[in-house]
UniProtKB/TrEMBL annotation:
Keywords: Membrane, Transmembrane, Transmembrane helix. The chain crosses the membrane at residues 12-35, 210-231, 251-271, 471-492. It comes from Glaciimonas soli. This is PepSY domain-containing protein. It comes from the Bacteria.
Amino acid sequence: MKRWLFLAHRWLGIILCLFMAMWFFSGVVMMYVGYPKLTDSERLAKLPELACATSCISLENAVNVLPTMLQSSLTAITLTSVAGEPRYQFTGIGKRVFSVDARTGALVTAISEADALRAAHAFMPRAGMQYLDAVNEDTWTHSRGLDQHRPLHRVQMNDADSTLLYISSMTGDVVRKATHTERIWNYVGAWLHWLYAFRGGVLDAAWSNVVLYLSLAGVLLSFVGTVVGLMRWRFRGSYRSGAKTPYREFFMRWHHVIGLAFAGITITWIFSGLMSMNPWRIFDSHSSPLNKAVYVNGDESDGNLSPAKFQISASQAIDALQNILRPREISWHMLNGKPYLVGVNGAGRTRIVQVDGDTFSLREEFPTSQLVEAAKKLIPNAHAAIEVVNHYDAYYYARDAHTMMGNSEKRLPIVRVKFDDPQQTWLHLDPYTGTVEGTLTRTKRVYRWLFGLLHSWDLPIMLASRPLWDMALILLSAGGFLLSATGIVVAWRRLRKKLLE
């Protein structure tokens, strides 16, 4: 048995030590430079104020030019700006986004090279630019959230950051930006950490399994290495050399010592990295997804956002909001069968336009009771416990914009509704927009601990303890890297010896 443990550790190490070193090094880079993205706050800050008080067509007229099937299945409606011009954007079945020019009423069917350049100019008006090409996917656009916008136009900006912009071929929106600094650091950061070298080519379909099984092998390597290290360590007495370790060769000795010192964090980080892949779908909920149409309509109907339900025009909403926040976007919603609009400004502040027949009123947020009344209809036979979250906690917290979870703002307070259904479902409701901010089942909460906490140390109290948080993670990562680096030397010497034989 002992011999098999030694052999398993030796050959797993020869195969995996380079990957382990890459993961530790790139993890530190990712603490400060994330995979390129365009956050909500960046996008809103670049939009102009909506200015179509007299020139915009009505929502009803815009809907009438959409494909017939979409007209009866609208789940999201937004008035925004594309290349500086107002556009209605509609989402329905299949999540594809359709755009209608809010001035001419024309359905946008294709985004040309010239359209992409206009969008890039509106986004960065002071920079020169060069159109590159249209790609379905490249190194900086592997995110599944971009699928509805593919193919993507690429425009190289001549600004100080050498920013690369990606423009949706469906809507004309700028959907991603990647600065030169982000691109360079990502080659030793997220691109390396997530093994994106396996994405986009013939191995693309196998990428998730490659990461999963390499991580699983890494967990096995770390565990077996810890067992072997403990077996070889003299806790009582010492070897003839006077040391606790039997190894006299420099790299073997330090691999043994560092391995025992950093065994716990190595196993923890590789295991939590494995959990990030949701191996064998263990964190999937096995129940039917919640019917969000019930939350919207208050009943089992289809939840279609029909223009007939909104007796207020976009122009009226803009006028009403103008003196409060000068909206950059307006979106149409329903809560428990009651229509309303939400305006948002360049700083992300919102106001609700509550519609009551042909009259309307402004409010900053919905009362908790109104949100809870709608939420309870999602799981009608379950008891619901209500909690107003005024401070970040383990299940609702903000991350820096460059991190994986930092794409959108996490505002406070939010309303948490805890159901006692079989999945122990929690809902997070945003009182400032009336929407469901997030859903957490029991398995998703387990995932939060096994991946989020163990991998990123992202409890709010930890994130607030900087630079101690930085120092601790860098020190532990350095230990893991040195463990892997000494393993690389030992593995290379062993492999070279075998090859020469």
